[in-house]
Amino acid sequence: MSERGTTIPVTTAKDWASDQEVRWCPGCGDYSILTAMRMLMPDLGASLDNTVFVSGIGCAARFPYYMNTYGMHSIHGRAPAIATGLAMARPDLDVWVVGGDGDMLSIGGNHLIHALRRNVNLTILLFNNQIYGLTKGQYSPTSEIGKVTKSTPFGSLDTPFNPLSLALGAEATFVARTHDMDRQHMMDTFRRAHEHKGSALVEIFQNCNVFNDGAFDGVIGKKETRAAMLIPLEHGKPIRFGAEGERGVRIDEQGHAEIVDVADVGEEHLVVHDEARADPTLAFTLSRLSTGPTMPTPIGVFRAVDRPEYGEGVSRQLAAAQEQRGPGDLRKLLSSGSTWTVGSPT
């Protein structure tokens, strides 16, 4: 049943596939993300009529074309702003935001952090391939220092953004990471993000096999080595990883997260993950555990806390104002305060 009390028709993954030809480069990680999303939507009980995907510009921004629901391929970097307006005007809709690391973190960085700090009810998927793909291989805000590209022929000098640290610094209430080589993990992570009330950001390690192939091979390239390179975060459990859970994470005397052998320190000294901790310090520390996708890297939900959702607060203010002052008068508002008339030059 929907919030309006009407029955939502049962759908299948096929129902969520539009009639548009999917036009990404063969082998692009976007295909697996799209498949995971189409498969997830029926499990969510989502409605074709109440779901909207808003994107900016870039390879990832083609996403709305390929979902058989409402969508908008908007302006470069402005997807979070446009989605904010939509979520405020239509709180009954499921609003998803899709963008790449360039779209979201370069020209769109300002819009992203304000959507997160306001806690607008949006599910934001950030496809991170550490490159500009659509414009043919320039470095992006997440490219590593020294990255040689068409726009940095002598190597990038820019310190890259850590998307999760940035989101946590903006007081995001839900922050998670997944990758395009594990469909089930993507679906589980997207489900958690969708269930969250407020702004939810999911970073997805996504391979661009044409302009930055193998950027994440160090952690997800081979299935048999992922257990040693991916650190699963599970709420309420000590943080352990490895084929036998032989390695773990603890906080040292300086408050830094470090990787240890469990046999050397004992499980009692490992960090117990608490995604619901109000203070984001632990989540931020875990987001800084790896300096890049070449060393053991945490995945899963870093933070999931409750905070008033922005749209509900605005709605309460509007209702209170209308009750106290009656219906608004736009013409009166526009002519109030400091106004003047521009006349002909004398």
Overview of this structure, please?
With 346 residues, this protein is of the alpha/beta class. It is globular. The chain has an eight-stranded mixed beta sheet, with helices on both faces. A three-stranded antiparallel beta sheet has the order 8-9-10. The protein has helices at residues 30-44, 63-66, 79-89, 101-107, 109-118, 163-169, 183-195, 217-220, 226-229, 262-265, 281-287, 310-325, 330-334; strands spanning 51-55, 70-73, 94-100, 123-128, 174-179, 200-205, 230-233, 240-241, 247-251, 257-261, 297-304. 31% of the residues lie in helices and 17% in strands.
What are the segments in which pLDDT stays under 50 over at least 5 consecutive residues?
none
Number of strands: 11
Whole-angstrom Rg: 22 Å
Percent of residues in beta strands? 15-25%
Put simply, the count of helices is 13
Give the overall pLDDT as a whole number: 94
Based on secondary structure, the structural category is alpha/beta
Oligomer: single chain
Largest sheet report: 8 strands, mixed
Q: How would you spell out the order of helices and strands?
A: HEHEHEHHEHEHEHHEEEEHHEHH
CA-to-CA gap between the ends?
67 Å
> What overall geometry do the principal axes of the alpha carbons give?
globular
Strand order of the largest sheet: 2-1-3-4-6-5-11-7
